[in-house]
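To: structure subgroup
Subject: Chain for Friday's discussion

All,

I'm putting the inputs and outputs inline so they're searchable in the archive.
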Amino acid sequence: MSEPEPEEQEDLKEGTLISHLLELRDRLLKSALAIAIAVLPCMIYANQLFEFVSRPILAMLPKGSNLIATNLSATFVTPFKLAVWVGVFAAMPVVLYQLWAFVAPGLYRREKRFALPLLVSSVVLFYVGVAFAYYAVFPVLFRFFITTAPQGVAVMADITSYLDFVLTLFFSFGVAFEVPVATVLLVATGLVKMKTLTGNRGYVILAISVIAAILTPPDAISMCLMGAPMYLLYEFGIVMTRILVKKRDEDEDETVHADA
C-alpha cells in the first residue's frame, strides 16, 4: 500500500455547519466594525479628503478656476461618498485578515505558507496601484484633457462626475496592479503552465491592451499609462512565480523525504 500524502497526515480543525456559520457571522461583524471605525474619522475630515483628491485637476485648471457643483446636495453627498470609500479602502487589510482567519484552519501548512504572502502582496499592490494613479496618471491625464479643449471652451468639472471618474480609475489601477498575484495563482493552481506564460507574450500584450481600453477613458494616453505598468507587472509576476513555485516544490520534497 502506498504511503499517504503528507497533507493527509496533518490534523485539520473540523467543525459543524453551525459552528462555521457562527464563526462566519463573527468575522463579518468584525469586518463591518472595522469599516465603521475607519469611516467615522473619514467623515469628520470629508472635505479635507476631497480637497486632497481634487488637487491633481485643480493644479491643471486655468488660474482662478474651480470645480463646480451642479446639484445643491452634491456639496455634502460627494465628500460623504468619498469618505465612505476611503474608509472601506483603509479597513481592507482588517477585512482580508478576517477572511484569512476564517479559511486558514482548513488549509495545510504548505498552503498557508504559499497563500499568506499572496494575500499580503495583493493588498500592498492594490494600494500601490491607487497611489500610482494619483501621483503618476492623474497629472498627465488631466493636463492632456485640459490642453486639448477647443478654443473658447471653458473647462469646468462637476465634483460628482469628477469623483466618479477618480474612483473608477483608482479601482481600475488597483485591480490592474494585481497582475503578479493572478500570474502566481494561475501557475500554482495548475490552470496555466509556466511555458504558456513565457511563450505567448504577444497574446498577453493584446489582452492587456484590451483590458486597458475597457478600464480607462477612451484615449491613447490613459491606455498606455495603464498598459505599460500591467505588462511590467506581468513580467515581474513570472519572476515571482518561478521563485515561489520552486520554493514550494522544494518544501514538498523535504516533507516527503522526512516522512519516508
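Points worth raising on Friday:
Residues 35 and 88 are 6 Å apart (CA to CA).
The radius of gyration is 23 Å.

D.
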